[in-house]
Amino acid sequence: MRVRTIIDGSSCLAPHPLPLQDGPRILIWRPLYRFGRARVTAWTCYEYRITSYELCEAGGVSFIRRTVVSKGRRIVSETDAWSCGEARVIWTALLAGRTRLASSWSAESRLLGFDEKTPVIARRRTVQQGGQLSAVETLWFPLEIALGTDVDKPEPLRQGVRQHLQAVKHLRFDHITERLTARSPRKEESELLGDSKPVLGVLATVHDAAGVVLMVLEAALPGVLHELQDVYPVT
Known about the structure:
The protein is an alpha+beta fold and 235 residues long. It has 2 domains: 5-100, no CATH class; 107-222, Chorismate lyase-like (Chorismate lyase, 3-Layer(aba) Sandwich), CATH 3.40.1410. Helix content is 16%, strand content 38%. Strands 9-10-13-12-11 form a 5-stranded antiparallel β-sheet. Strands 4-5-6-7 form a 4-stranded antiparallel β-sheet. It has a two-stranded antiparallel ribbon with strand order 1-2. The termini are far apart. Residues 1-10 have low confidence and may be disordered.
């Protein structure tokens, strides 16, 4: 069965993706053709959209190709390749808006030493204590550190981030700089916490021995569940 979409009085047989939102899958777009000729097996509307997508197959693998038309120029980029079955699942998620782009334009990018437009990989997790949600943690990684590891995959890690990066890429955490702030939760944090009350924000930057930033951890801690205690000498 084909679904016919009516736009401005015209009929369109190709699907129109829903707006991208936070989802379980991160898509990284690379501005180059790596697969050359490919067979297009599915596509979105070309005529009425600035951005269109194609599901492609080449060499026994499948990937998604994106075309953006801006000021008369066509900018083409591609995702990584997956098995054809996995790519079909991701394609369906893309059409439903259940994917998200590698994060950019963030303060965390600057902490990682990048320009604000440089994409980074982000993972988010929640922490529970006594059956109650006690923290929302977001981990940010430079692409060159995340790629080739399980950090850029949607599945939960089977071991800690530190142990995983050390085992796969032989990276060692040396020191951490930490900043504490009282702030309002971001939209995503508020939705996970189920509350918009102020949180204690922890921003921790992880370095190796040479001072290179390996990761940034941002935690939102509900103020009603956490308190700080410090002991220091009085002179």
